[in-house]
Amino acid sequence: MIPPPTIVVPGGDFFLGALPQDKFANTTELPRRRVEVASFAMGVHPVTNGAWAAFAPGHTGDSDLPVTHVSWHEAQEFLAWLSSETGDSWRLPTEIEWEYVCRAGSETLFPQGDDLTPADANFLFDESIERVGPGGITPVGTYPPNCWGFHDLLGNVNEWTASPWAQTHETDASIVPGSFTIRGGSWDGLPRLLRPSWRDGMEAGARGDHLGFRVASSKG
User: Fold this and answer.
1) 6-217: what fold?
2) pTM across the whole model
Protein backbone atom coordinates (compact mmCIF):
# COMPACT_ATOMS: atom_id res chain seq x y z
CA MET A 1 0.00 0.00 0.00
CA ILE A 2 1.38 3.39 -1.03
CA PRO A 3 0.30 5.94 1.60
CA PRO A 4 -1.37 9.20 0.58
CA PRO A 5 1.16 11.88 -0.43
CA THR A 6 2.39 14.01 2.46
CA ILE A 7 4.57 17.03 3.09
CA VAL A 8 6.85 17.38 6.09
CA VAL A 9 6.02 20.58 7.96
CA PRO A 10 8.84 22.29 9.89
CA GLY A 11 8.13 23.03 13.52
CA GLY A 12 7.41 26.58 14.59
CA ASP A 13 4.94 28.77 16.42
CA PHE A 14 1.91 30.80 15.41
CA PHE A 15 -1.20 32.46 16.78
CA LEU A 16 -4.07 29.98 17.05
CA GLY A 17 -7.57 31.39 16.76
CA ALA A 18 -9.47 34.25 15.17
CA LEU A 19 -7.72 37.41 14.05
CA PRO A 20 -8.71 40.62 15.89
CA GLN A 21 -10.14 42.16 12.70
CA ASP A 22 -12.29 39.11 11.87
CA LYS A 23 -15.94 40.22 12.01
CA PHE A 24 -17.14 36.61 11.78
CA ALA A 25 -15.12 35.42 14.79
CA ASN A 26 -17.04 33.70 17.57
CA THR A 27 -16.24 32.52 21.07
CA THR A 28 -15.31 29.00 19.91
CA GLU A 29 -12.34 30.54 18.06
CA LEU A 30 -11.04 32.43 21.08
CA PRO A 31 -8.90 33.28 22.93
CA ARG A 32 -6.23 33.86 20.33
CA ARG A 33 -2.98 32.55 21.72
CA ARG A 34 0.52 31.70 20.57
CA VAL A 35 1.28 27.98 20.39
CA GLU A 36 4.32 25.94 19.41
CA VAL A 37 4.12 23.09 16.92
CA ALA A 38 6.65 20.28 16.50
CA SER A 39 7.61 19.11 13.02
CA PHE A 40 5.22 16.56 11.52
CA ALA A 41 3.94 15.32 8.17
CA MET A 42 0.41 15.86 6.83
CA GLY A 43 -1.50 14.72 3.77
CA VAL A 44 -1.31 16.97 0.73
CA HIS A 45 -5.05 16.51 0.28
CA PRO A 46 -7.92 14.64 1.97
CA VAL A 47 -8.00 10.84 1.71
CA THR A 48 -9.63 9.85 -1.57
CA ASN A 49 -12.09 7.16 -2.60
CA GLY A 50 -9.20 5.45 -4.33
CA ALA A 51 -7.18 5.18 -1.12
CA TRP A 52 -10.25 4.14 0.85
CA ALA A 53 -11.06 1.36 -1.63
CA ALA A 54 -7.71 -0.27 -0.88
CA PHE A 55 -8.82 -0.46 2.76
CA ALA A 56 -12.46 -1.32 2.05
CA PRO A 57 -12.67 -3.44 -1.12
CA GLY A 58 -15.94 -2.90 -2.91
CA HIS A 59 -16.07 0.78 -2.05
CA THR A 60 -17.12 2.75 -5.10
CA GLY A 61 -16.81 6.35 -6.21
CA ASP A 62 -14.55 8.49 -8.35
CA SER A 63 -11.05 7.64 -7.18
CA ASP A 64 -9.96 11.30 -7.18
CA LEU A 65 -12.82 12.55 -5.00
CA PRO A 66 -12.39 12.84 -1.23
CA VAL A 67 -13.96 9.93 0.60
CA THR A 68 -17.03 11.07 2.57
CA HIS A 69 -19.64 9.50 4.87
CA VAL A 70 -16.76 8.37 7.10
CA SER A 71 -17.12 8.58 10.87
CA TRP A 72 -14.25 9.51 13.20
CA HIS A 73 -14.11 5.87 14.33
CA GLU A 74 -13.89 4.63 10.72
CA ALA A 75 -11.12 7.11 10.01
CA GLN A 76 -9.24 5.62 12.97
CA GLU A 77 -9.73 2.12 11.54
CA PHE A 78 -8.29 3.26 8.21
CA LEU A 79 -5.28 4.84 9.95
CA ALA A 80 -4.61 1.67 11.96
CA TRP A 81 -4.77 -0.38 8.75
CA LEU A 82 -2.49 2.08 6.94
CA SER A 83 0.01 1.91 9.80
CA SER A 84 0.00 -1.89 9.60
CA GLU A 85 0.38 -1.90 5.83
CA THR A 86 3.23 0.61 5.67
CA GLY A 87 5.10 0.08 8.93
CA ASP A 88 4.75 3.78 9.74
CA SER A 89 2.52 5.33 12.39
CA TRP A 90 -0.41 7.28 10.91
CA ARG A 91 -2.96 9.40 12.71
CA LEU A 92 -5.28 12.36 12.30
CA PRO A 93 -3.78 15.84 12.62
CA THR A 94 -4.61 17.79 15.75
CA GLU A 95 -6.65 20.93 15.21
CA ILE A 96 -3.60 23.01 16.15
CA GLU A 97 -1.51 21.26 13.49
CA TRP A 98 -4.33 21.67 10.98
CA GLU A 99 -4.63 25.44 11.54
CA TYR A 100 -0.84 25.87 11.52
CA VAL A 101 -0.66 24.29 8.06
CA CYS A 102 -3.74 26.11 6.80
CA ARG A 103 -2.43 29.52 7.83
CA ALA A 104 1.05 28.73 6.46
CA GLY A 105 2.49 31.83 8.09
CA SER A 106 -0.27 34.18 6.94
CA GLU A 107 -1.84 36.89 9.11
CA THR A 108 -4.85 37.60 6.86
CA LEU A 109 -8.45 36.36 7.11
CA PHE A 110 -7.70 33.68 4.54
CA PRO A 111 -4.26 32.28 3.70
CA GLN A 112 -4.11 34.15 0.37
CA GLY A 113 -5.63 37.43 1.59
CA ASP A 114 -8.71 38.96 3.19
CA ASP A 115 -11.18 37.63 0.62
CA LEU A 116 -12.03 34.19 -0.71
CA THR A 117 -13.19 33.74 -4.30
CA PRO A 118 -14.72 30.75 -6.13
CA ALA A 119 -11.34 30.32 -7.83
CA ASP A 120 -9.66 29.75 -4.46
CA ALA A 121 -11.78 26.97 -2.95
CA ASN A 122 -14.92 24.87 -3.35
CA PHE A 123 -17.85 26.55 -1.54
CA LEU A 124 -21.45 27.00 -2.59
CA PHE A 125 -22.56 30.52 -1.63
CA ASP A 126 -20.92 33.92 -1.36
CA GLU A 127 -21.68 36.19 1.59
CA SER A 128 -24.73 37.62 -0.19
CA ILE A 129 -26.08 34.02 -0.47
CA GLU A 130 -25.63 33.98 -4.23
CA ARG A 131 -24.69 30.55 -5.56
CA VAL A 132 -21.12 30.63 -6.88
CA GLY A 133 -19.84 27.06 -6.43
CA PRO A 134 -20.24 23.76 -8.28
CA GLY A 135 -22.71 22.31 -5.78
CA GLY A 136 -20.81 19.16 -4.83
CA ILE A 137 -17.39 17.80 -3.95
CA THR A 138 -14.63 18.19 -6.51
CA PRO A 139 -11.51 16.09 -7.24
CA VAL A 140 -8.62 16.76 -4.88
CA GLY A 141 -6.18 19.27 -6.32
CA THR A 142 -8.81 21.10 -8.37
CA TYR A 143 -8.03 24.36 -6.56
CA PRO A 144 -4.59 25.95 -6.05
CA PRO A 145 -2.46 24.76 -3.11
CA ASN A 146 -1.50 27.07 -0.30
CA CYS A 147 2.05 28.39 -0.21
CA TRP A 148 3.22 25.25 1.63
CA GLY A 149 1.83 22.96 -1.07
CA PHE A 150 -1.36 21.67 0.60
CA HIS A 151 -4.65 21.38 -1.30
CA ASP A 152 -8.29 21.62 -0.19
CA LEU A 153 -7.69 22.84 3.35
CA LEU A 154 -10.56 25.28 2.80
CA GLY A 155 -13.81 23.96 1.39
CA ASN A 156 -14.63 20.72 -0.45
CA VAL A 157 -14.99 18.59 2.72
CA ASN A 158 -14.84 19.28 6.43
CA GLU A 159 -12.01 17.31 8.02
CA TRP A 160 -11.94 15.28 11.20
CA THR A 161 -9.09 16.06 13.59
CA ALA A 162 -7.66 14.11 16.50
CA SER A 163 -8.73 16.83 18.95
CA PRO A 164 -11.71 16.33 21.26
CA TRP A 165 -14.24 19.13 20.91
CA ALA A 166 -14.09 21.97 23.43
CA GLN A 167 -16.15 25.16 23.21
CA THR A 168 -13.16 27.54 23.37
CA HIS A 169 -9.38 27.66 22.96
CA GLU A 170 -8.89 28.08 26.70
CA THR A 171 -6.21 25.61 27.80
CA ASP A 172 -8.49 24.36 30.58
CA ALA A 173 -11.71 24.28 28.52
CA SER A 174 -13.93 21.29 29.22
CA ILE A 175 -14.18 18.79 26.38
CA VAL A 176 -17.45 17.34 25.14
CA PRO A 177 -17.22 13.55 25.59
CA GLY A 178 -17.56 11.58 22.37
CA SER A 179 -17.22 14.59 20.05
CA PHE A 180 -14.26 15.73 17.96
CA THR A 181 -13.26 18.93 16.22
CA ILE A 182 -13.75 19.39 12.50
CA ARG A 183 -11.98 22.01 10.41
CA GLY A 184 -11.95 23.52 6.95
CA GLY A 185 -15.53 24.08 5.86
CA SER A 186 -17.17 22.28 2.96
CA TRP A 187 -18.60 22.47 -0.54
CA ASP A 188 -22.05 23.50 0.75
CA GLY A 189 -20.85 26.43 2.87
CA LEU A 190 -19.97 30.08 2.42
CA PRO A 191 -16.68 31.94 3.02
CA ARG A 192 -17.26 32.72 6.71
CA LEU A 193 -17.35 28.95 7.33
CA LEU A 194 -14.07 28.42 5.48
CA ARG A 195 -11.90 30.75 7.57
CA PRO A 196 -8.78 29.04 9.00
CA SER A 197 -9.99 29.68 12.57
CA TRP A 198 -13.49 28.27 12.00
CA ARG A 199 -14.13 25.14 14.03
CA ASP A 200 -17.01 22.96 15.09
CA GLY A 201 -17.60 19.73 16.93
CA MET A 202 -19.33 16.57 15.77
CA GLU A 203 -20.13 13.29 17.46
CA ALA A 204 -17.59 10.63 16.56
CA GLY A 205 -20.22 8.50 14.85
CA ALA A 206 -21.39 11.27 12.52
CA ARG A 207 -21.20 10.84 8.75
CA GLY A 208 -22.12 13.11 5.87
CA ASP A 209 -21.48 14.05 2.25
CA HIS A 210 -19.48 17.03 3.51
CA LEU A 211 -17.19 15.18 5.94
CA GLY A 212 -13.80 13.56 5.27
CA PHE A 213 -10.28 13.51 6.70
CA ARG A 214 -6.57 13.60 5.88
CA VAL A 215 -3.61 11.73 7.33
CA ALA A 216 -0.79 12.93 9.53
CA SER A 217 2.34 11.43 11.03
CA SER A 218 4.77 12.52 13.71
CA LYS A 219 7.69 11.20 11.63
CA GLY A 220 8.34 14.71 10.32
Assistant:
1) paralog of FGE (formylglycine-generating enzyme) (3.90.1580)
2) 0.96
